[in-house]
Amino acid sequence: MQSTLSATVLISIAATALGALAGALVASYFPGNVLVFAAAVFVLGLLCAAFRMERSAYRNAGVTFAIIVLIPRANAAWIIALHRFFEVSVGILVALALVAVWPERPPGSAKQNAE
């Protein structure tokens, strides 16, 4: 079953926020600890399951989390997390706006229009 456009936006942005929040917390309090990283990814999975999010939301949260925690930067983790959240959210909104404006045609419709 395919999700609606509004549900996709909500889940994608919520997953990004969850990953950014977890990344900011872990990077601030446990820098460079692989066991904490693994435990945090596991907890992200549990949270996504508890909130009944789809697997794509877990992947989105995990990627956001990993980018915040694993890439060293000069700024504070909270700033990196906030920037990452806004960057991904804008990208999601632009992509889904394009899908709404320019919907995908069924595979057979191109042949019917040509005839």
Question: Could you characterize what this model shows?
Answer:
The chain is an all-alpha fold and 115 residues long. It has one domain (5-114). The chain is 77% helix and 0% strand. The chain contains five helices and no strands. Helix 3 (55-70) runs antiparallel to helix 4 (77-101). The longest helix has 25 residues, at 5-29. The mean pLDDT is 86.
State Rg. Answer: 18 Å
Largest sheet: none
- Please work out how many helical segments DSSP would assign: 5
How much is the average pLDDT?
A: 86
The number of distinct β-strands equals 0
Class from helix and strand fractions: mainly alpha
* C-alpha termini separation: 32 Å
Task: Characterize the overall form.
Answer: elongated
Instruction: Classify the helix fraction into a percent range.
Output: over 70%
Strand content: under 5%
Runs in which pLDDT lies below 50 for 5 or more consecutive residues are none
Number of domains: 1
Order of helices and strands: HHHHH
